[in-house]
Amino acid sequence: MNPFTPFKASNPEAAKLYGAIVAQARLPVFYQALGVPDTLEGRFLVLSLHLFAVHRRLKAEGEPARGIAQDLADRFTADMETVLREIGVGDLSVPRKVRKVAAAHAALLEDLERAYASGDVAIAASLESTLHSDQHQSGASSLRLAHHVRESVSALAAQSVAALAAGEVKFPEIGSGGGSKD
Known about the structure:
Elements: H1 12-25, H2 28-32, H3 40-61, H4 66-86, H5 94-116, H6 120-130, H7 139-157, H8 161-165, E1 173-174, E2 180-181
Antiparallel strand pairs: 1-2
Helix pairs in contact: 1-3, 1-4, 3-4, 3-5, 3-7, 4-5, 5-6, 6-7
């Protein structure tokens, strides 16, 4: 392996899975119908929610899925580095900012894990606390987004890890009414 080739580029399956997660997080419905602000923070939140659902599925599988989960984490870190560079963060600041974003992502995943056990209202509160006070979505939007998180976790539980590893992740469809359609 070339010492200058990042580890994250070595797993094409993780690239497909991460690409599917990013594509889902970019759907306009999150920003138009569910009220997530179309900002860097809002997009980070939606991406993190979908990564949470996939990581939860992989964690349930145990050791056989640990490598895929690590590859996703590596992809996320590389993606955040790319985004920071694209928005003009200087080269010397990128590593520090990537660490800050990674820490915020890890804290959000831990918070979501705790909230998930308590239901949609707790998930919605976690989502609202993630955004700055001037970017809060309405309580109803937060609840619809929390419902989508729960439905995503359920939908992924029915999917095989082999399919996920191949990038064949199927998230539930989101209706304009805010709930997901089956």
